[in-house]
Amino acid sequence: MWVSCEKDVKILDDFKDITIVYGLMNPNDSISYLRIERAFLTHGNIFESAQIADSNLYPYKLDVKLKSGNQVIIFDTVTIFNKKEGIFYAPKMQVYYAVTKGKLNSNDEYQLEINNPKTGSHISSKSNFHDGSKIRFDYPNYSISFESDKVVEFKSIKNARTYQLNLRFHYMEQVVNDTNTRAYKYVDWIFPTYTSLSLTGGESMGVPYIGEEFYTNLMNNIPAAGNLERYYGEIELILSTADDTFNTYLEVNQPSSSLVIDRPEYTNIENGYGIFAGRSNGGGFYKMNLQTKSRIKSLPDLNFVDGFVK
Description:
Helix content is about 10%, strand content about 40%.
């Protein structure tokens, strides 16, 4: 009798249907989107396969619903054409969408249910949303100044854990004395994230800024005027917020200086992978005080001559 053994090494496991879900829901969005795809196996280069839509997409439509009490919101498929290039295929991508304007309540818990009509598998998740538009600033309350160091102050809101401030400077530019060449632009000044101690809301929070860095940011991001004249607008404060689930996901996946390479997998999708969480944003427009306006007009080479009302 002859004894032999299999010399080929099986690198790939047997294929399993694994659903991948990414959904960040803002109760103030008119249309909500979910990215729902499947994991794939390949004998070739995984990055090349990721660029092929058929590797990721289900060849049929899934049954996708968002539920809260007696309310049921049904999602359908749509193709977007503006996805940025990256690891996965672009610029076209199929996503699931639903019209949610005025339908989402930040006080309710929502259950995401996905049913696969071919395999019979059931994927689910749940989340509590929050409404960032309810945030009110204690400073600034009418105007904002950059002649000294200040702290943007506000109270945390229920179900929001992470807060990130974007201070946006609006301006208009045109060729000197030619109103037909007007262009409205802005410069962002983005701050680190801050985390609340609890999810109950009402906690005093603040984002400090160094006034001189505001002008430095303008100088670094606005090119020399040349034959342009510029007009300053108002300051827009945009406070982006994320719930506890999204905050945990970001912490797990942020860059690490540790020698330990392996990271724990984080997902709140039952019978699948990914994340279903809440996000939102709030803020408002604020005028600059007279000293700040005067300082902007004195910045070299930028040629700010006055303000504008858009």
